[in-house]
Input
Amino acid sequence: MYGLVNKAVHDLVVTKFGAEAWDTIRRRAGVESVSFVGLQPYPDAVTYRLVEAASETLDLPPAKVLEAFGEYWMTYTAREGYGELLDLTGGDFVSFLQNLHALHARIRRGFPGLQPPELRCTEVTASSLRLHYHSQRPGLAPFVVGLLRGLGKRFGVEVSVTLDRTRDEGHDHDEFVVHFHPAREG
Output
């Protein structure tokens, strides 16, 4: 994964839990470097070790760490200079999801060797859809749950997500049933 991902993990931990927590997580994960270069590729194992170390340090299940990170990813990437690109991807929750493949194709130009997941929407209605998630990386379904929640916040919709089919059950990809409706005010 690119350093941008690990930088986001760092930023989330420092923002929510403090620099000491990050330093503990970094050391526990066996990461010597204090910072990451956003456009430099790092082995996926580094990110997985950071998630595992965060889980142990913060006493949270790995799935909860990944969900929190997925939700945070939406605001982090917008803040890190990708906001305009995100804006061009879609003006509402559903169109954004339907255009993710095009977004990843654009991003791939600036990140040689990037291996983004494929996300595809089917069974789209006014309040639900089925999201198909194909990835070479195992175990990231909770990240997608958080990403969907973060995307919901971006577009002012409440989102509930159910993981319906998983690779762990022998399917070739994960499938989510996503329900959404305008967020309640107040």
About this structure: The helical segments are 3-17, 19-28, 44-58, 62-89, 93-98, 100-110, 141-155. Residues 62-89 form the longest helix (28 residues).
